[in-house]
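To the team - flavin-adenine dinucleotide complex, inputs and output below.
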Amino acid sequence: MSEESFPHIVVGSGPGGATTAHLLAQNGKDVLLLEEGSHHVGLESFSPQEMLHRYRNGGITATVGKPLVQYVEGRTLGGGSEINSGLYHRAPRSIVERWEADFGLLETDWENVCEQIESDLSVGPMTIPLSAASLKLAQGAESLGWQATEVPRWHKYHETGPGERQTMTRTYLKRAQETGRCKVETGQRVVGVSPIDGGWQIRTAQGRRWKTPHLFLCCGAVYTPFLLRTNGITRNVGDSLSLHPTVKVTALFPEEVNSRDMGVPVHQVKEFAPTMSFGCSISQPGHLALAGLDQPDLLRRVGAEWKRMAIYYVNVLGTSHGKIRTVPGSSDPAVSYTVTLRELRELALGLKRLCRLLLETGAQALFPSVTGQRPITSLTELENLPPVLTRQTARLMTVHLFGSCPSGEAPHCPVDSFGNLKGHSGLHIHDASLLCTAPGVNPQGTIMTMAYRNTMKFLEERG
Ligand SMILES: Cc1cc2nc3c(=O)[nH]c(=O)nc-3n(C[C@H](O)[C@H](O)[C@H](O)COP(=O)(O)OP(=O)(O)OC[C@H]3O[C@@H](n4cnc5c(N)ncnc54)[C@H](O)[C@@H]3O)c2cc1C
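Output:
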């Protein structure tokens, strides 16, 4: 089988991989970008068709553990950036200081990198009318004296219409290809990574092979450690997955708050951040029906009353650690995560606070995603919510995974402060795996910041 050589190969085209490929190509380096998913055009955002084609396993994946945590990842050109809400945060300074102290992460003075990314991706406030469901969070927070913010997005708004989310295929991947130096191959799943002649040889499930002196793994927080472990690189790899455990509650209001073109809700309540945050999710009828799967009363009402309903969430700063492991005979990993009592307690407290806020804004009934929980219609009923969610009944999910190959100089970090896999020259990690712990905010901004800064360091050192 013939084997091509490339000076730089990036595996995975999500925010980490796209940022890396963009900077390499812009700086005159030839790069091959390999992506397992396809490039689907014309799919309606947040539709069932999109879930089928752009989500890994159609969005149905879960950790092993009790309670299990359902999680969602993109598997498409552009990775998670193509399916997410585009809500942007910088990493909170208090969290980054912890990364410096506990993980020995160096050179975190990255404000100029954040500014560059914000400019490149048109990060800013929403300039089209905000949805009524999202505004409920701001109203409720104001009346309780809690802090709420309108989170900026990577989005270009026009005078009419919804505008365009600035996904990786619309920004960094497009710009990388326009240089003529970045070749993109979709439908290629890398399964083999092995050292060869001072560099790296890679092999895909589709039977292609390449070699390179500089290999950047950007497959996300689950598939980067899985790929490494599959190929015998296991030291401190995939031992410390962190996430934001999330519990949802569906609210029914007396008036309409939802519509087919509701758009992305942008408000978040930050009064208790970074320990916990509240927000509003996309709440199309399909999402509401899924939320009602073990809430018969909710499910019965979705068809006729969905315009008066919206889904809200509490996410907490995950403090437990999950593991990513290979499974003999399987091409996918086993992902375990032990939800701690502390997390279950914080989720219960957060749920109580969020329900209080929603009742304050006039919600008539609240349906928490807790099996067997009766709908809550008053503050008195709210008092009966248990002080800790139980392992048997909590239905948890997350869209935020990170920390499976934490970055820093401390011995327990498999990757140094700049994305180099320790002990494996020429092998770099530039994705969500690098974050030392859960950041307590939507993570894509931080992932891109670290990938950007690491690529600049790589370029500086190699000229
Ligand atoms: C529904 C949803 C909503 C979200 N909303 C927000 C939000 O509003 N704001 C925010 O900041 N974050 C949000 N996130 C999280 C954010 O999208 C992710 O944190 C981010 O995409 C992770 O970037 P990454 O580069 O690490 O990996 P990914 O985006 O997961 O990209 C990895 C890519 O690598 C590919 N790949 C994996 N294995 C291989 C292999 N072996 N060979 C070749 N290719 C491979 C995958 O197909 C994928 O395309 C959301 C996520 C989801 C799912």
